[in-house]
UniProtKB/TrEMBL annotation, chain A:
<keyword id="KW-1003">Cell membrane</keyword>
<keyword id="KW-0472">Membrane</keyword>
<keyword id="KW-1278">Translocase</keyword>
<comment type="similarity">
    <text>Belongs to the PNT beta subunit family.</text>
</comment>
<dbReference type="GO" id="GO:0005886">
    <property type="term" value="C:plasma membrane"/>
</dbReference>
<feature type="transmembrane region" description="Helical">
    <location>
        <begin position="38"/>
        <end position="56"/>
    </location>
</feature>
<comment type="function">
    <text>The transhydrogenation between NADH and NADP is coupled to respiration and ATP hydrolysis and functions as a proton pump across the membrane.</text>
</comment>
<protein>
    <recommendedName>
        <fullName>NAD(P) transhydrogenase subunit beta</fullName>
        <ecNumber>7.1.1.1</ecNumber>
    </recommendedName>
</protein>
<feature type="transmembrane region" description="Helical">
    <location>
        <begin position="221"/>
        <end position="241"/>
    </location>
</feature>
UniProtKB/TrEMBL annotation, chain B:
<dbReference type="Pfam" id="PF12769">
    <property type="entry name" value="PNTB_4TM"/>
</dbReference>
<keyword id="KW-1278">Translocase</keyword>
<keyword id="KW-0812">Transmembrane</keyword>
<feature type="transmembrane region" description="Helical">
    <location>
        <begin position="14"/>
        <end position="36"/>
    </location>
</feature>
<keyword id="KW-0997">Cell inner membrane</keyword>
<dbReference type="GO" id="GO:0050661">
    <property type="term" value="F:NADP binding"/>
</dbReference>
<dbReference type="GO" id="GO:0005886">
    <property type="term" value="C:plasma membrane"/>
</dbReference>
<keyword id="KW-0472">Membrane</keyword>
<keyword id="KW-1133">Transmembrane helix</keyword>
């Protein structure tokens, strides 16, 4: 039998298997029981595709020893760093970690285009189609890389929200320049390296300026969008090499990521255009309502503990503050203590509470909070009127009544947890600072509301100590 | 125009595959509960790390004397590995917590 044919057949077979594992993996990730298995299956498929490519893609020739050693070295270096980072990262820092790894994929796609463009210069037939694919891979990969890095920096708190004046106009001009230059390169067949680097610079700049003005409340949407960008960039690579595994993997993530992005926008009742152009956190409308603030009532730890102990139904609304304070285990302890006292406690999970959709679910799952206690927002809102005490822990924008009654508010129209329908509200908060959207929250001045200032974890621990003394 | 037509014709099977994959991606995701949005995004993130195969192909095909391709390809292999390995490990860590609880 022809050895070469055997190798190539095994290669294609492994790509088919890998594509199937990606589809199965994504499918299984959609159900809680099978999700972990799905992730592992897709991981094995990926390993198979990588190994088969190294073994069977090209015939081994001894004078390419440097190529092979560099591949192995790259794989080892990447694995060591990747595993270390992934194991060390705290649960609260997950969103930025995903954004970081996403940026790496985007950069990889961009670098591939740089090499392939150069490859065309040294022989090889130049076709417009090929050039378009290479250039699009470069543009999308670079935007995804620099955008993800900015998103990472913002969530780490290293980069502040900044909106350039006339930022939108600059962005549109940049886009025109990028596609003008790419169009020129593709149509003229001019393989100028300086122009390619120009295109790279413009694309990187666009990624930075695109994410820079977007406020943290919209960060989940942006990360999801960049995720699907990288998927598309990977698909362009697949098109370039006629590689089915890259194509299916890339396109699947591209389309699934787009749908996920749309789902998130729906949860916030906004359109994608609005998220991108609206610059949520710009703070322009922020101070509009500051004139009509009422008074703020504080509550002591003892009073709060008594209120909770004698309630029938308590609902906890967690937010990013819970994640920052690492208070997920403490809140679970409070929950068990209250259950022992016969209080019915549930969690009301806003779909975009935290910095990523499902962020709160992941966090509370870490603390072993049982599934059935996590209510989705609609269910939680239905039971709100019969709830005695709502405990808002480090959440702000997702409980802001302005979303319902203030058309001038930037979050007007976003579905929120209607905590004001409950009998009592206690807000645990570090200070009177604004939420990530940078707007006032009149809930804090609501007659039913009382504030318990302090770090969420400290306050919860004090509450637990008080409850034990009752 | 002829270029585009021939591009379409030569790649008709890929274009078919792309369109089917788009619908598949939409179909597979549409019923995911909010609980799993973060792990799903993270898992999808790991899957697009398949772009690493492109960087391996570059390395395999590069002329041993072409240092431009070798250096950039090496960099791309590291970047792609980070995406794949980091992505899958992070996702697994998130999902481990879900598993522990369902017992």
């Amino acid at each position: 039998m022809d050895i070469k044919l055997l190798g190539l057949s095994l290669l294609e077979l492994s790509y088919i298997v890998a594509s199937v594992t990606f589809i199965l993996g994504l499918k299984m990730l959609s159900s809680p029981d099978k999700a972990r298995k799905g992730n592992l299956i897709a991981g094995y498929g990926m390993g198979l595709a990588i190994a088969a490519t190294i073994l069977f893609k090209e015939e081994f020739s001894p004078d390419k020893w440097l190529n092979y050693s560099l591949i192995l070295a790259g794989l080892i270096i990447g694995t060591v760093i990747g595993v270390r980072m992934a194991l060390k990262v705290k649960m609260t820092a997950m969103p930025q970690m995903v954004s970081f790894f996403n940026g790496m994929g985007g950069a990889c796609a961009g670098v591939i285009s740089l090499v392939e463009f150069d490859h065309l210069r040294h022989g090889g037939e130049v076709s417009t189609g090929m050039l378009i694919v290479i250039l699009l891979g470069l543009i999308i990969g670079s935007v995804s890389f620099s955008g993800s890095m900015i998103a990472y920096g913002k969530l780490e708190g290293k980069i502040a929200d900044k909106a350039l004046p006339a930022g939108q106009i600059i962005n549109i001009l940049l886009l025109i320049a990028i596609f003008g230059l790419a169009g020129f390169l593709a149509i003229s067949g001019n393989l100028s390296m300086p122009m390619l680097y120009g295109l790279l610079t413009l694309s990187l700049l666009y990624g930075v300026l695109f994410v820079m003005p977007i406020g943290g409340a919209d960060m989940p949407v942006v990360i999801s969008l960049l995720n699907s960008f990288t998927g598309m960039a990977a698909a362009f690579g697949g098109f370039l090499y006629g590689n089915q595994a890259m194509l299916t993997g890339g396109i699947l993530v591209g389309s699934a990521g787009t749908i996920l992005t749309v789902l998130m926008c729906t949860a916030m009742n906004r359109s994608l255009t609005n998220v991108i152009i609206g610059s949520f956190g710009g703070g322009n409308a922020a101070s509009a309502k500051s004139g009509e603030q009422g008074t703020i009532k504080e509550i002591s730890v003892t009073d709060a503990a008594i209120l909770l102990a004698y309630a029938n139904k308590v609902s906890v609304v967690p937010g990013y503050g819970l994640a920052v304070a690492q208070a997920q285990h403490t809140v679970h302890n409070l929950e068990k203590l209250l259950e022992d006292k016969g209080v019915e406690l549930t969690y009301a999970i806003h779909p975009v509470a935290g910095r990523m959709p499902g962020h709160m679910n992941v966090l509370l799952a870490e603390a072993d909070v049982p599934y059935p206690k996590l209510l989705e927002m609609e269910d939680a809102n239905e039971g709100m009127a019969s709830t005695d005490v709502v405990l808002v822990i480090g959440a702000n924008d997702v409980v802001n009544p302005a979303a319902e009654n203030d058309p001038s508010s930037p979050i007007y129209g976003m579905p929120v947890v209607k905590v004001w329908n409950a009998k009592n509200i206690i807000v645990l908060k570090r200070s009177m600072g604004k939420g990530y959207a940078g707007i006032e929250n009149e809930l804090f001045f609501h007659p039913k509301n009382r504030m318990l200032f302090g770090d969420a974890k400290d306050s919860l621990e004090k509450l637990i100590a008080e409850l034990k003394n009752l | 125009m002829e270029e585009i037509l021939s591009l379409f014709y030569e790649n008709r099977e890929f274009i078919f595959l792309i369109i089917v994959s788009i619908f598949l991606g939409i179909e597979v995701i549409s019923n995911v509960p909010a609980v799993l949005h973060t792990p799903l995004m993270s898992g999808a993130n790991a899957i697009h790390g398949v772009v690493i195969i492109g960087s391996i192909i570059i390395m395999l095909q590069a002329d041993p004397g072409n240092y431009y391709a070798l250096v950039l390809g090496f960099l791309a292999v590291i970047l792609g590995t980070l995406n794949v390995v980091g992505g899958f490990v992070v996702t697994n860590r998130m999902l481990e917590m879900f598993k522990k609880k369902s017992k």
